[in-house]
């Protein structure tokens, strides 16, 4: 059988119905970050039933938190599980298919028109929390391996399907998987990219800013100092910092974005009584890190901006605000766009879809930087759905995109790992 005929047989072996059912099964098993255990067990069972060699293990949380590459956490966690299913046992090239099974909370129920955990199939879309980000990607990776199996292909190398936890709050699961020894020669991370190739991702740091004021009764508010009013001065300094850091960005992929390195305050807590001048404020935010930028340098720049703004205000000069680095700490990461794995994945996608995929950079942090920076594995983000549908009510993914990703990955497995 010719290589062309073999590839066509593999592509034809992608089972759309089974793929849809896998996505639905994963969506219907809630897996909010910190509580992914049931979904991991379910997926481990699915992998075993398909005949994959499965490694399912409890994470050693104390060891991971002591690791020099510890990526931070935002969610309280008392346990977690790693999961890797492997097909093939040859000594040829090893391809990693990586995806996170944890999802963000659903938010207010009244903002959803469908059951967030229903996995409803309607008009060619699968709805539910995690459908887009990124259980459909995981299911596509599994469907790709199943297609290779069904086509009777024996690989020279092996393909590893990694289902990881805690990506949404730092990447503890992928770090654990690397430390477990599940590494390879290249990786595809099935994040929602609208089937574009993303070999470069910016970094992102979680931080908290604490501001002190002076309490007084609201009827004599001039006797006090409002922490909210003082925060406004600091917020304006952060806005100026964001503008400065996003001016003249020259990176060929990140420079395409209007705001490649966003700085955002997502949470404010202030005061303790409506008729008292607020004596404390905490702002929690997310700080974009530039491509090639050292995390220590990025932190120092934000701390300096806050200190400079505080020095110009008499109260803040005497009561300096605190910057605390907390939550996920995502370094930037990049595989050169000219790398062979990027080109090969692009060729596979073009073969399946008839048009070459776009090449972009991501303004968000992802597990790509752990695979690249910690394990030295060239990696690319590529998956169904888009980031503008992630983390939102009525999250969905289009079935045709999930199928195209599964077929692209199946072709990638054959071409990268080789056939025995």
Q: What series of H and E elements makes up the topology?
A: HHHEHEEEEHEHEEEHEEHHEEHEHEEH
Question: What is the count of β-strands?
Answer: 16
The total domain count is: 2
* Uncertain spans: none
What is the end-to-end distance? 13 Å
CATH superfamily of the largest domain: Zn peptidases
Estimated radius of gyration:
23 Å
Summarize the structure.
The chain has about 425 residues and is α/β, with parallel strands linked by helices. Helices cover about 35% and strands about 20% of the residues. The chain has helices at about 5-10, 15-25, 35-50, 60-65, 130-150, 170-180, 225-245, 295-310, 315-320, 340-355, 370-375, 400-415, and strands spanning about 55-60, 80-85, 95-100, 120, 125, 160-165, 185-190, 195-200, 205-210, 265-270, 280-290, 320-330, 335, 360, 380, 395-400.
Q: Can you put this structure into words, describing what you see?
A:
- The protein is of the alpha/beta class and 420 residues long.
- It folds into two domains: 3-201 and 332-417, Aminopeptidase (3-Layer(aba) Sandwich); 203-330, 2-Layer Sandwich (Alpha-Beta Plaits).
- The chain has twelve helices and 16 strands.
- The protein has helices spanning 3-12, 16-27, 37-49, 61-65, 131-150, 172-179, 227-245, 295-311, 314-318, 340-353, 368-373, 399-417; strands at residues 53-58, 81-87, 94-100, 121-122, 125-127, 158-164, 186-189, 197-201, 203-212, 263-270, 280-289, 322-330, 333-334, 359-362, 379-381, 396-398.
- The strands form four sheets. Strands 1-2-6-3-7-15 form a six-stranded mixed beta sheet, sandwiched between helices.
- Strand 4 (121-122) and strand 5 (125-127) form a beta hairpin.
- Helix 1 (3-12) runs antiparallel to helix 12 (399-417) and helix 10 packs across helix 12.
- The longest helix has 20 residues, at 131-150.
- The radius of gyration is 23 Å and the shape is elongated.
- The two termini are 13 Å apart.
- The model has no long low-confidence stretch (mean pLDDT 97).
